[in-house]
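Deliverable D2.4 — example input (structure tokens):
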């Protein structure tokens, strides 16, 4: 029986068809299909659908975030390419990308997830081709090579795991459990990890994600905010079937830390804003995989949604950000320096609030406060190092941001608790904070050596990308 998930996907594919054959007015009208799909998801969460795609508590918030990001990117693209020949292909391809990403979010079993994952890779290639106009362009070719390699690993690993575990493995609904620790489970989780890292461009060298900065802004926003972070959901879904496997988790931790250490200084070494945003995306994906490997899926989900919404806005506001930054540099510093005692009191207040949230809630909230609490302290000290017009307002904004994030974590844990995988282990709450502190210290020293005038006065901690002042401002 057709359910809300399938109706939502049908709406988006219909929008792709109509926007390809229709004129500018029809393209603008098709944008309303995206909020309609979001409404269907919200309504469908109370239903018990069946089939390969269905609405559940985990897929709905991630799917709605993908629709919001996709809708904003499509609206931007509709204005950016109005009257151009390539508008048909770009708008239609963007609709297909959003549909396939949503299909991945709403997949009910591994087979549906693998099909949706491969379909997303194909649609991304089509979108890059529509934006560049040539298959031989290095951007499209690089992405195609990456997807062919990693998606082949996912498909082959899924088929092999299916053969080892049994035919039921690929059609087993998420929430069931495969034999823990068996060869089939190891193969499935390892294949998913390879595909997730490939989609995120998780490499210290040439990454297809960084290469997309040459594409139009609307394409960059859609790819960096709505596509590359899908690997987190893939790992969460597959790990729900296989459980945590030490060998895979250790490799993922090592790779994530390596990418963070290498890429974080490069964020500020680049002089182009889109380049900074692109390198930051890969570093943020590494942090997200690190939280997953340490057994904190709620942190990964909130990071996935928050990073996607924030990064889409930053890409689409890149032009205005450059103008604003240039204007600020020409102005003389305003405000006044605050005393050391006020700085210390501000730090103590932030630490007390983060500690209160973490200790009273525990679990993933405690682990998150161990990372973002010190991050807020770093931002406070960085801001007050320069003359500040309203230091109290700055402190209040930081505290409110930290408190809102803590409340979101509490809400996500209560809403998604039953839908998340029960991992075999959780890392100590302080371990994530310690690892991030070590990475931040190392990358800060390297960053000072390689920093450009653009990066002066900007904190180099790779984990404070959610806050607008912490990335490339």
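Example output (designed residues):
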């Amino acid at each position: 029986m057709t359910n809300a998930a399938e109706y939502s996907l049908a709406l988006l594919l219909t929008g792709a068809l109509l926007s390809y054959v229709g004129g500018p007015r029809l393209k603008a009208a098709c944008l309303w299909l995206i909020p309609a799909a979001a409404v269907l998801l919200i309504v469908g969460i109370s239903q018990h659908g069946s089939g390969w795609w269905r609405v559940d508590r985990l897929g709905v918030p991630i799917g709605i975030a993908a629709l919001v990001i996709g809708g904003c990117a499509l609206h931007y693209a509709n204005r950016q390419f109005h009257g151009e020949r390539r508008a048909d292909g770009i708008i239609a391809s963007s609709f297909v990308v959003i549909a396939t990403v949503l299909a991945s979010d709403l997949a009910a079993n591994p087979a549906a997830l693998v099909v949706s994952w491969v379909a997303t890779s194909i649609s991304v290639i089509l979108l890059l081709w529509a934006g560049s106009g040539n298959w031989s362009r290095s951007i499209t070719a690089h992405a195609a090579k990456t997807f062919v390699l990693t998606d082949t690993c996912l498909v082959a690993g899924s088929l092999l795991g299916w053969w080892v575990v049994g035919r039921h493995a690929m059609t087993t609904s998420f929430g069931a459990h495969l034999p823990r620790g068996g060869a089939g489970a190891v193969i499935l989780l390892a294949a998913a990890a390879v595909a997730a890292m490939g989609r995120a461009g998780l490499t210290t060298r040439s990454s297809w994600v960084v290469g997309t900065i040459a594409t139009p802004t609307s394409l960059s926003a859609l790819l960096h905010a709505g596509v590359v972070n899908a690997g987190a959901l893939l790992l969460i879904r597959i790990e729900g079937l296989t459980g945590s496997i030490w060998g895979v988790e250790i490799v993922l931790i090592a790779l994530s830390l390596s990418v963070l250490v290498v890429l974080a200084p490069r964020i500020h070494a680049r002089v182009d804003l889109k380049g900074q945003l692109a390198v930051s995306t890969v570093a943020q994906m590494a942090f997200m995989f690190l939280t997953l490997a340490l057994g904190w899926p709620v942190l990964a989900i909130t990071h996935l949604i928050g990073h996607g919404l924030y990064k889409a806005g930053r890409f689409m506001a890149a032009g205005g950000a450059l103008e604003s930054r240039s204007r600020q540099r020409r102005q003389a510093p305003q405000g006044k320096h605050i005393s050391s005692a006020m700085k210390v009191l501000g730090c103590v207040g932030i630490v007390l609030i983060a500690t209160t949230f973490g200790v009273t809630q525990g679990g993933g909230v405690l682990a998150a406060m161990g990372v973002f609490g010190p991050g807020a302290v770093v931002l406070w000290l960085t801001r007050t190092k320069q003359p500040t017009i309203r230091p109290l307002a700055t402190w209040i904004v930081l505290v409110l941001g930290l408190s809102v994030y803590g409340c979101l974590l509490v809400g996500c844990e209560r809403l998604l608790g039953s839908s998340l995988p029960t991992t075999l282990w959780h890392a100590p709450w302080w371990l994530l904070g310690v690892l991030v502190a070590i990475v931040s210290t190392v990358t800060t020293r390297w960053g000072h050596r390689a920093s450009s005038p653009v990066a002066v006065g900007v904190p180099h901690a790779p984990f404070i990308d959610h806050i607008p002042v912490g990335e490339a401002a």
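The chain has a mean pLDDT of 83.
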